Amino acid sequence: MRTDPIEAARFYLDGLASLHLRHRVPEAEVAQVLRQSPPIEYNAGQTIFRQGEPADAALLVVNGELLVFVSGPEGERVLGTIGPWDVVGETALYAPDHPRSASVRASRDSTCLVITREMLKDGHANGVVAALEYHLLHTLSHRIRVTNNALHGAWRELEAGGTSTTREEAK
To answer: Positive or negative CA dihedral for 135, 24, 18, 108?
Structure first.
């Protein structure tokens, strides 16, 4: 049995605001966001974003699971999965002139909210939008930390194998 997408999204947004703002927001603010961004349901196997396409929005997963992957000459390479409370496609909100860097496909039936730049720009007085912005910044900072740790690990691995080149050696 599938949960009512509107009720699931309402619960999600109220919880997100409570988490990031430390208080509940008026129902009218939740309703305003749901009018701007009604929940969208995706079926398992449905492609949502394609690598290289123009990017104009991000998704917040209310329930379900999305698979993030890149395509290359050797096929698909899975970058990870995105589940409830996660964001995908957030680069579109801050670097709108860049195409999608990866594809996204629903690996299970999923419900998502679409977040646009216009929603963030126009919703400055809405507590739910403020909580979404906080959540987006938290997501971006987390992904930067994960990427930095992976780079440091790769550098240590290269140095341990003796294949690292210093700047002086490269000249």
So the answer is: negative
